[in-house]
Design a protein that fits this description.
Layout lengths: L2 H25 L12 H9 L6 H4 L5 H15 L6 H9 L4 H8 L15 H22 L1 E5 L13 E6 L20 E2 L4 E2 L33 E5 L25 E8 L4 E5 L2 E4 L2 E2 L9 E8 L5 H6 L5 E8 H4 L2 H9 L5 E5 L3 E5 L4 H6 L3 E12 H8 L4 E6 L29 E5 L6 E3 L5 H11 L4 E4 L2 E4 L2 E2 L2 E3 L4 E5 L9 H4 L2 E2 L3 E11 L17 E2 L10 H26 L1
Antiparallel strand pairs: 1-2, 2-24, 3-4, 5-6, 5-24, 6-22, 7-8, 7-16, 8-9, 10-14, 10-15, 11-13, 11-14, 12-13, 17-21, 18-19, 19-20, 22-23, 24-25
Helix pairs in contact: 1-6, 4-5
């Protein structure tokens, strides 16, 4: 809904509240009109139910208010002597409308000095639990959110199994846009695997989707800079669950799209280009911070056969086997058409008079049909430049060479993945651009050549109607030759350049998709480790950003924890002597 529609909805809610409680306000010694005045009526109600005025603030925070409303309904009933389990049940499951019945049919007396202490252990436990959920949701939404690195796109800078704290206040906390959702979870409720929010993902015009709040972000104390690592909602997310295949396209609210973490290499107003795998911003090569450990794809040829011991020694975990195919088959157009149809994305690495060496998304069926053979001594591996130099000096290695794509790649932005290389540009993930990163308020020329780059911005991200008639472009039913951007955009890429689904494929990230800034690694779990080595002790309690190499503060934490327990022991001992 728009801001105006939300205002009308808010006033209707206030009217419903006033009509259902004005008599109760009178019985509590207040004026009946006070039940109808927005916000003020909540402050007065808190006094009636003998609760602090700051509870009013909680009633207007999305998601938290879903917890607070039932609490206030029950507290209102109890303030007028309706204390039974049935009263509580009716108050909650009629969505508060039981108060209408009480207001108009019951002759009640307001209890001014009502005890706020829970009468049973169950009641006390529920109260404590609700309070804990409210506090945790506030912290989670506006201050700090836990996050786990799920993929290797930032390897070796951030590792799979790193547990992070993501700051919301650096870039400014974004208020929730989805008003009806389960607290403390993202897009799916754990274990039961059902959607955690109210939204019709198959019908954009549904009433459920009208409950979305407009985008709003509180001021932060930092702007996103080049090289910042950023957590954001994946702009092109159309999946039901972030780690499960989708059976169809699922439309999702912005704040419920899958959380991604990448490095921001391009900020609003930048011109970005990628040359041979290196990023250039405004014509100058982007120099990554010392802590960044970018990985690139290298052809790795062994002198004998593939050496598993060597790969373990150099910690080579990400690699692809390559295949040999008869040259006559490889150069057959029917074979190439078949591979395009199967979306195998097969690329030639080398060839001689009899065979070609290829790599790609090859399944068992393709392998058998084309009579492929696995290479015995050749792999492609993701390596840092430092590790590649070390391998060149190893006597067991015949060749180490950086692999740079030269052919046009299917699915590179703004091209869609359809099995056919782009006809718009001859770009690939190693050689790309230049491309402009849109800035709020900036105007660009809009024509048939530039439209593919900005089409998704104009329609999906900024909500305009777009159509093309001949050579004319219509935005909101008016011919447009220029377009002014409504918000800032960013270019997010992984440090693991050849194993990262990033902006080279999905394009720009809008400002309203920004979640926060990773600041601290409190735990790091290596699923391939054994025993105590499953924990990466050197990464625990390290900062994500900063100059120089990361340093673990875990030992200092343990010292402080030990001092605390020692101090507590002697304090209790001294107190016991004093009481004797």
């Amino acid at each position: 809904m728009s801001t105006y529609q939300w205002l009308v909805f808010f006033l209707i809610i206030q009217l419903i509240h006033g009509l259902g409680t004005w008599k109760l306000y009178q019985k509590a010694g207040r004026k009946s009109w006070e039940a109808f005045v927005p916000v003020y009526n909540s402050i007065v109600l808190m006094k009636i139910i003998n609760r602090p005025s700051w509870w009013t603030f909680l009633l207007f925070i999305p998601v938290i208010n879903l917890i607070m409303f039932p609490v206030v309904w029950v507290e209102t009933l109890r303030s007028f002597g309706k204390n039974t389990t049935l009263d509580t049940f009716l108050g909650i499951f009629t969505l508060g409308f039981y108060i209408y019945f009480v207001n108009y049919t019951q002759n009640l007396t307001h209890i001014t000095d009502r005890s706020l202490v829970a009468r049973t252990k169950t009641g006390d436990t529920v109260s404590s639990l609700l309070f804990a959920i409210i506090v945790a949701t506030l912290v989670h939404t506006y201050v700090m959110q836990p996050f786990t690195i799920p993929s290797s796109s930032l390897e070796k800078s951030l590792l799979i199994g790193d547990f992070l704290f993501v700051s919301k206040f650096h870039y400014g906390p974004r208020t929730p846009m989805t008003t009806v959702a389960a607290p403390m979870v993202h897009d799916t409720i754990p274990f039961v695997k059902v959607k955690s929010y109210l939204y019709d993902d198959n019908n954009p015009e549904s009433w459920k989707n009208k409950l979305q709040l407009p985008y709003f972000r509180f001021p932060g104390f930092q702007e996103i800079k080049n090289n910042d690592i950023v957590v954001f909602n994946w702009p092109r997310d159309t999946l039901f669950h972030m780690y499960l295949p989708a059976d169809r396209r699922y439309s999702k609210p912005i704040d419920k799209k899958t959380n991604y973490v990448k490095r921001c290499v391009g900020i609003p107003g930048d011109s970005l280009q990628i040359k041979n795998g290196d990023v250039y911003i405004n014509g100058k090569q982007l120099i990554l911070p010392e802590r960044a450990k970018p990985q690139y794809c290298y052809d790795l040829k062994f002198k004998s056969t593939i050496d598993a011991e060597l790969m373990q020694q150099y910690d080579i975990n990400e690699y692809n086997r390559v295949f040999s195919i008869d040259r006559s088959l490889w150069e057959n157009n029917l074979v190439k058409d078949y591979l395009i149809k199967e979306k195998a994305k097969v690329v030639e690495l080398s060839k001689d008079s009899t065979s070609a060496t290829i790599i790609g998304a090859i399944d068992q069926e393709i392998y058998e049909k084309l009579k492929l053979r696995l290479s015995e001594n050749f792999i492609q591996a993701n390596l840092t430049a430092e590790k590649a130099e070390m391998l060149k000096k190893d006597s067991r290695i015949e060749q180490v060479s950086k692999y740079i794509k030269t052919n046009t790649e299917d699915g590179i932005y703004p091209d869609l993945t359809d099995g056919i290389p782009s006809k718009i540009n001859n770009w690939n993930s190693d050689n790309f651009g230049p491309i402009y990163i849109p800035k709020a308020g900036q105007t660009v020329d809009l024509n048939l050549k530039s439209l593919p780059y900005y089409k998704i911005i104009i329609t999906e991200y900024e909500g305009n109607k777009l159509k093309v008639v001949g050579n004319d472009i219509y935005v909101n039913d008016k011919i447009a030759t220029k377009y002014t951007f409504a918000q800032n955009y960013y270019w997010m890429m992984g440090d693991n350049r050849n194993n990262s689904l990033d902006a080279r494929y999905f394009g720009y990230t809008p400002e309203n998709h920004i979640v926060g800034k990773p600041v601290f690694i409190w735990m790091s779990w290596d699923s391939n480790g054994k025993g105590l080595n499953k924990i990466r002790w050197d990464r625990m309690f390290t900062t994500v950003n900063g100059e120089g190499q990361p340093e673990s503060y875990f030992k200092y934490f343990l010292v402080l924890l030990g001092l605390y327990f020692v101090g507590e022991y002697f304090w209790k001992k001294r107190k016991a002597k004093t009481n004797e």
